[in-house]
Design goal:
about 100 residues; 8 strands
């Protein structure tokens, strides 16, 4: 019997908000989470099982982010302000999917 490969990991879901600081306050007052990163254009909130990215329109697309050891096979990885490296691709329906290099997390 062969051992199945480990499942891929959902790193975060990103939703668009109008005001990062206001949204961070609301999520922190409503849920138990921690701020992993925050600036004027995006924030990353850590929950026990995944993370929630808050992004503003025209800066970052709403998307789902997965850790992907093969991320670089989809093209050149971009290094972000927080030091992570990733590439955005689209699923067959046009949804944005971020593939993150796990070595940069």
């Amino acid at each position: 019997m062969t051992t199945p490969s480990p499942l891929d990991t959902l790193h975060h879901v990103a939703i668009q908000v109008q005001d990062i600081a206001e949204s961070v306050r609301w999520y922190r007052e409503t849920f138990r989470c921690e701020i992993a990163y925050q600036d004027e254009t995006w924030a990353l909130l850590k929950f026990s099982n995944t993370s929630l990215a808050l992004v503003i329109p025209n800066q970052h697309p709403p998307h789902v982010g997965f850790t992907c050891p093969e991320a670089s096979s989809f093209g050149e990885l971009k290094t972000h302000r927080d030091g992570t490296r990733s590439i955005y691709i689209s699923d067959p329906s046009g949804n944005a999917v971020e593939l993150m290099d796990p070595e940069s997390l």
